[in-house]
Amino acid sequence: MSVATTDMVNAQSTQKGKQQNPYTLVYDGAITKNEKGKVNIHPVKYKLNGIDIAANVYTPANYNASKKYPAVAVAHPNGGIKEQTAGLYAQRLAEAGYVTIAADAAYQGASGGAPRHTDKPASRIEDIHGMADFVTQYAGVDANRLGVLGICGGGGYTLKAAQSDKRFKAVATLSMFNSGEVRRNGFQNSQLNTIQERLKQASDARAQEAAGGKMIYAGVASITDEEIAKTSTDLYREGFEYYYRTHAHPNSTFLYTMSSLFDLMTWDATTNMDLINQPLLMIAGSKADTKYMTDEAFPKATNAKSKELFLIDEATHIQTYWKPEYVSQAVNKLLKFYQTNL
């Protein structure tokens, strides 16, 4: 059996137990009940621009609301939700003494907003500001010691959010994905010759919506094992396994409105990177086929107070979401970074 197949079988063997989780968390080692003296999870809801946002706040062991704790907001990947890797990292940081928040993006997951599966940069960035709004008011949080962690697409949006939001005193990304660049140019710049054609599709979709017509979706609604096996890129093959098999959750989807491309294709995570003056840590797998996006963004952060690019040896993009040895390396690096800067 290949290593990849073994990984998938091992992950699948725990999937049934995960689905029974009372908080619907689908990551290994997830909290199943709140116990005194341990990390606790608190499902919360709050309004952001009139939309109900669903989030989980994690509090450290022996949390005391009369004390002051540093906090970290965690922004989830594209297609992801708070119960997957964002929750895993939020829980691991809480185990080290941080109050953390992982929220579902507006229009996605358990959060409100219509049309569903809207995936526009301005909204995803506003979600990150919204997490800062909420968690800095949370009992026991020291608003002057707030960090942010963005994973995958959440990483690209975090870079943009931190350019203006100076409440974030330390900025970190994991497996950063520049959603605008990929929707515009294709993954690994594979669709440069169809940009105008795809912009026309997005424009037509917006026109159809405006006329009260049917919503058009881009992306993948479901996929067979055979289709997964034939997928050539690690990101998408392992991503399909993660989202549709090993860490599947009913609120998670690879679909987004076609009209979202109207906004996504003219956006880029790396514009105005010189506005980031906070300390910056960017983490990527050395074997990630998305690493080029971190490599493009990192040099542009010319005014960061300090900056470091940390590579997890042998890791692919999706493996940084769940594989214990890679998650541990990322968490240990994040803790050193936040301890130094918060």
TrEMBL record:
Gene3D superfamilies reported for this sequence: 1.10.10.800, alpha/beta hydrolase
Pfam families the UniProt entry points to: Peptidase_S15
InterPro entries linked: AB_hydrolase_fold, Polyketide_trans_af380, Xaa-Pro-like_dom
Gene Ontology MF terms: hydrolase activity
Limits of the Xaa-Pro dipeptidyl-peptidase-like domain: 50-238
Superkingdom assignment: Bacteria
PANTHER family per record: SUPERFAMILY HYDROLASE, PUTATIVE (AFU_ORTHOLOGUE AFUA_2G16580)-RELATED
Name by which UniProt lists this protein: Xaa-Pro dipeptidyl-peptidase-like domain-containing protein
UniProt organism field: Pedobacter nyackensis
Biological classification of the source: Bacteria, Pseudomonadati, Bacteroidota, Sphingobacteriia, Sphingobacteriales
